[in-house]
Specification:
2 helices, Lipoprotein, Immunoglobulin-like, mainly beta, about 170 residues
């Protein structure tokens, strides 16, 4: 499964999520190529309200993924290392494009605020962005219990979303 399929999967999951969820893990198997991919996602504990046409409350989603990998004899997809992270807003548009300083501000537990550079997930999509330094971001997800993410949204400015990381997979 490629990143576009991951974005589609997350958008379907996020649009069906009425409540904040704990981390969910799934596996995608490509029988034709003999590869597997591990995916995990969570949605924010809080809703943020945007103006029309995105009114009604929006949640931020975090999706992490392994690479598509050909598994060795006896190897299970659960053992695949997570290598990339992305964010998804179920209703809204990130203010992220090649012409501006695209970043998010994050606070893990009670630590100092950090800035993570972001990049477009794919041309023309404004509801998903990739964490440029996924390794550092994922390592922080593993070590902490709480996360606040602040991102900039089109015609809405900066908004904050909270996540409980206590059941993060791979601890």
């Amino acid at each position: 499964m490629n990143l576009k399929h991951g974005i589609l999967l997350l958008s379907m999951i996020a649009s069906c999520s009425a409540l904040a969820s704990s981390w969910k893990v799934s596996y995608q198997n490509d029988e034709m190529r003999g590869t597997s991919q591990k995916l995990a996602y969570a949605t924010s504990d809080n809703l943020v309200n945007f103006e029309f046409p995105y009114n009604g409350g929006s949640r931020l989603g975090i999706m992490i993924a392994s690479a598509n990998t050909k598994l060795g004899e006896g190897e299970k997809p659960d053992s695949l290392p997570i290598i990339r992270a992305m964010l998804f807003i179920d209703k809204g548009q990130f203010q992220c494009n090649p012409y501006n300083d695209c970043h998010i501000s994050v606070k893990f537990d009670k630590e100092e605020i950090q800035s993570f550079p972001m990049e477009e997930a794919s041309a023309g999509r404004a509801d998903a962005i990739l964490v440029s330094d996924s390794d550092e971001f994922i390592n922080n997800l593993k070590k902490h219990k709480m996360l606040i993410i602040e991102a900039e949204f089109y015609h809405a400015g900066n908004k904050q979303f909270k996540f409980n990381l206590e059941d993060f997979p791979g601890r």
